[in-house]
Write a structure and sequence with these properties.
406 residues; mainly alpha; GMP Synthetase, Chain A, domain 3; two-stranded parallel ribbon; 16 helices; elongated
């Protein structure tokens, strides 16, 4: 089409459709081209589209509807949505409204929310200091921090910026208040002569397993929350996704001056938070929750990309910890064997025992015809200290072995 054949006309009328019909009837047009509507199928059925309303007129009219090719990403998303609609039970409109209202109400920073955070952190901190896993587990049922993280996943799927800000405010203030309570109780515990416990140390070494647990917990929690009949399972999910214990551990270890453990606990909380948001967002999308397209969802897409990159980025150092532990176990066993071979002794087994008073105990079983000397025990202790950054205590068990002369 040549540019000079295109002209612009303005026609005034109270009805768009009437103005178009008048223009077409007055001039000799062969066909009218109009762009395809981008509204949903439900809206098209309820209100109709411009081509439909033009063709309903009494005048004869040739109308052609055209549209550009959809991007491949848009086509893939449409296929995915159709597949999910056929294979995954979708939430009804009333269920989606009830879910949004429930999460929005429970994700607000309020007096009740703050009170529960302070109480849950106090219980958790005392349980960590007392080295009581049962107390720590019970405190997880009190903490309300899971719901704002689920709200973060919902807001990302919807592109709901006000809900996202509300949830992040609750998470941020909850983290600060829990950290302050943990630091305060940690300071009191240090003044009373308490030290690191097994419960504290265990939360200072996160691994990729914690990332997987948090992601699955986010999926499970959002699934239960979206279906009220399954809400009873939320308590178990809250126990699985530890959120308050890492924050309390960070505050306590900062008060104790154990910055390495505090850093590990802080990383554990960040890992859990990111994984829960992504897991819940994935489940809400699969359940049929969508957002409106447009510029308002740009931030949501960018947030999802950033969170996904962060999660995959965390997998590298978290996985390396397991690899180092496995590799380090072989290296330290070889070191024990070399030290024992000096006196002609044979290392039968090396076991890591539960922590005692914050110290890892390594049990070494040696086959010998007589008791192992104190000097050999000291050499094994030196080998353990050389291969570990943490404090280790070696316990040597002598297994008497005698070989006949014949």
């Amino acid at each position: 089409m040549k540019p000079e054949t295109v002209s612009r006309k303005v026609r005034l009328n109270d009805s768009v459709y009437a103005a178009i019909r008048e223009e077409v009837s007055e001039d000799n047009y062969g066909m009218m081209l109009i762009g395809a509507s981008g509204v949903s199928s439900v809206r098209r059925k309820l209100f109709g589209t411009v081509p439909d309303k033009l063709l309903r007129g009494t005048e004869g009219m040739s109308v052609a509807v055209i549209r550009g090719e959809k991007p491949i990403g848009h086509r893939l998303r449409n296929r995915l949505e159709r597949s999910l609609q056929l294979s995954v039970p979708q939430l009804r409109r009333d269920e989606r409204v009830a879910l949004f209202a429930d999460i929005e109400d429970k994700s607000r920073w309020s007096f009740d929310f703050g009170s529960l955070m302070l109480l849950a952190t106090a219980i958790t901190a005392l349980g960590l200091i007392a080295d009581s896993g049962a107390v720590v587990t019970g405190a997880m049922l009190v903490a309300p921090l899971m719901t704002p993280l689920l709200g973060g996943g919902l807001s990302v799927v919807q592109g709901n910026w006000p809900l996202w800000r509300r949830c992040q405010k609750a998470v941020g203030l909850g983290f600060i208040s829990a950290l302050a309570v943990g630091y305060l109780l940690g300071t009191l515990a240090r003044l009373c002569g308490y030290g690191l416990t097994d419960e504290l140390i265990a939360r200072g070494a996160p691994s990729v397993l914690d990332l997987g647990i948090a992601f699955i917990s986010g999926v499970a929690a959002s699934y239960c929350l979206a279906r009220p009949k399954l809400s009873g399972a939320l308590a178990g999910v809250a126990i699985g996704a530890a959120l308050v214990p890492p924050i309390a551990t960070t505050g306590i270890c900062l008060a104790f001056g154990k910055y390495q453990v505090a850093q590990g606990a802080a990383i554990l909380f960040g890992t859990n938070a990111v994984a829960i948001v992504l897991g819940s967002a994935m489940n809400f999308f699969m359940a049929g929750i969508r957002g409106k397209g447009g510029q308002s969802t740009v931030w949501a897409k960018r947030t999802m990309i950033v969170f996904t990159l962060v999660m995959f980025g965390l997998m590298v150092p978290l996985s390396s910890l397991i690899v180092k532990q496995l590799a380090g176990g072989d290296d330290i066993t070889e070191a024990y064997e070399k030290v024992a071979a000096v006196d002609g002794l044979v290392v039968s087994s090396v076991k890591k025992m539960p922590y005692k008073a914050g110290v890892q105990v390594v049990e070494i079983t040696i086959d010998s015809s007589e008791a192992v000397s104190a000097e050999m025990v000291g050499l094994l202790q030196s080998a353990a200290n050389a291969h570990s950054k943490r404090k280790l205590k070696v316990r040597v068990i002598t297994r008497l072995v005698r070989v006949s002369d014949n």
